[in-house]
Amino acid sequence: MFERPQAGERAVLVHLALQAEQQQEEPREFRELAVSAGAEPIAVITGSRAVPHPRYFVGTGKAEEIRDTVRELQADLVLFNHALSPVQERNLEQLLKCRVLDRTGLILDIFAQRARTHEGKLQVELAQLKHLSTRLVRGWTHLERQKGGIGLRGPGETQLETDRRLIGERIRQLNKRLEKVQRQREQGRRARKRREIPSVSLVGYTNAGKSTLFNRLTDSHVYAADQLFATLDPTLRRLELADGQALILADTVGFIRHLPHDLVAAFRSTLQETRDADLLLHVVDASSPERDGNIEQVDAVLAEIEASDVPQLLVYNKIDQLEESEPRIEYDEHGLPWRVWISAQSGTGLAELREALAARLDRGRVCHELLLPVAQGRLHALLYEVGKVHREQVDEQGNWLMTVEMPRADWDALDKHYAIGAHLAGEEDVARLAHLAS
What we know:
By secondary structure, the chain is α/β, with parallel strands linked by helices. It is built from 14 helices and 14 strands.
């Protein structure tokens, strides 16, 4: 046994090329992850295997090569660009005599550094504890099991069970706190829905420029840097478009390949902003050679959080790093904006983006004049709950003459349950409404 070192950031990076396609990772991205966590990469060890080794993941020979490199360069930790089992992690630390961290643990560490709000810290701690609960088999001195024999049985196993119980209790406490925060967020979402302000959520691969774009559009000062997961906590701002049209813009955490499931589960309440959005601004690093793969990874995470059905507007960012750097809007076969090419850093193409946003949100709303009889009091009340009533007058018979605007989905739902389409006002009714309003 050895006492696990608590400090030091000189890291040896390990990456294997595995034949299983779903286990492939990007070595360049892993180095960026290590630097984002504050590590100092001093060596990169690569190799290839058909399948992971059950004991060391990398095989005995490669594990000894890593051990020799750690000793020669006096490394403090070894980072694996893969998900290690608890047993593999323990075996490697016993062999290498230094800290070993897999890809999931590294991402969790970055999130722990980035969390600033109360909710963000709770979510990260929950994800870390769920990850740690699977790794209580390791043999540090405070968990060491005695070898046995009369008079030699120690409290090691009791300590292990105590740790499990304490972690379980803490996880339950965190879940209760996050449920309370989620209820508060839900109240805010309902209030915005009542005011009929559409919500737009920024999504995309980490370091695609979401926070820079968010700051440009809303004149905010959200932290933005050229590093992975620079922004963690969600931020909401009001954005005014042309003709008085407004929306709520949400900046959320960036996605990455094989985002840890515990992290997705812990951040489910935050990602609810994405799932409930009227439109997703999918920000893409247009200069990245892996941009198509990154788009697929983001779509995979959106499917995991049940947000794949939310309409998307692709925003190809960083065109200032391309040879063809002219901002433009591309339309689909229905005449809707589909892709916008911009540079959030220089501000190029923001006017086109605002134009595309207005067009997409306009297509999602309807405005009608209605004539409701007195007997439709329930429908009249619902129109105020789900729609924006621009004007209303009561005629001589007590009928309501109304001009109402609402999302098309809400109109379709009301038409299905209350046949609201049967109450559309005719030309004479519209003229009467104008006359009464004047």
